[in-house]
Model the fold of this input.
Amino acid sequence: MPKEPEGPKYQKFYVDWWNIRRRTIYLVTATLLFCGLTAFGIWKFMQSDFVNNPDGPEAPKDAAIVVSFEGDVRVIRAATRETILVTRQTFVSAGDTIQTQADGRAKIQMIDGSVLSIRPNSTVVIRDSSSLFGGPNVRVTLDDGQINVRTEEQPENTENVVEVRESENKIGADTDASFDINKENNSGEIRISRGSIETTIGGEKMVVKENEFAALNDGRLGTREKLLVPPIHNSPSSDQQLVGSMSGVTDVMFRWQSPDVNLALTYSIQVSKLPQFSPPDAILVDKQGLVSPSLAVGGLFPGTYYWRVKALSSSGQSSNWSAYWKFTVIKRESSNAIGARDWNVESLGGPIYRISGKTQPGATVRSQGKSTFALGDGSFLLQISAPGNQTTVEISDERGNRSSFVIGLSSGNVIKQF
Done:
């Protein structure tokens, strides 16, 4: 007699199927919940200040922006009289005062696109920073120190004014102008290296043009004269390495070139341990009133030094400081010669040549005021401008070893070694 189908087998199949479905539902539910929470978290993150405003509070309309700064720079808020240290997020509004300390300098971009560079030990007040009648209005006051204003193509109806003592100076488009004020003796200077400004004092207007200088004394604008540029450095050359005695100290002869041989000039020179030439105790040499464009300084110990010069004319105009040059004094530890080989000279046209060769890795290679370092395999490549048909290449290392090679530029051969 045939057997009837057994019920429990069918029931077992049904239960297994239901268990699978239930686990699947749990898994899908958990997945959807996780995706939902993740999407919500991403949405909240995108709405957060961290994403929308990573640099801190949004600057008010017409505020000036701190493009860059270094050292101690402070802003005194006009509304609260609170003094804050400048950071990357700092903005400057109308009425605020900017102060730089001895090591501080800052670049501020104004609403008309002009850039205000504030030098150390300066105080500048932002008088106006607003957009009215279709054009931006910028007005700053220099209370003390030095600022530089650089404008490019300006929008229409732009008003950009720098107040220096009793003078009001309207900055033109495509202008590079510097203003200097000495609060102690109530004197100031205006320098225009590009463009022009319109200066108004007591209702009288005067235009100071490109490459002109004018002094401000007791509320009066002096006679305009040709702008005096800084002297030109000669030696020690930039990044030059000087080898001292066995005790380490050395004497250094500083030489520079007059910016105008037709003028009777005197010079000031500073030698510092820091490129900012501050604080004052970092300045090792501060000589003024030098008639000759040279100065011998003795007893410099091993280390890195920075030097700069400026010129003073008989009319009282002083140039800006020259861009500093750096040099290093090292202690002589030995006097071994440094070898070099595989010399090659490639002419690039005119007085331009490319010199290559091999020496000891890490050595410094110099010629005609240019320098480079030998790579790990000893190879070096140096491009120079030489007026003659030969040049001297000096190779030195940090232990005081050095050699000099006179190279023929047409043949690439070593003519002399010493």
Notes: The domain at 64-226 is CATH 2.60.120.1440 (Jelly Rolls). The mean pLDDT is 84. The first strand starts at residue 64 and ends at 70. Helices lie at 7-47, 49-52.
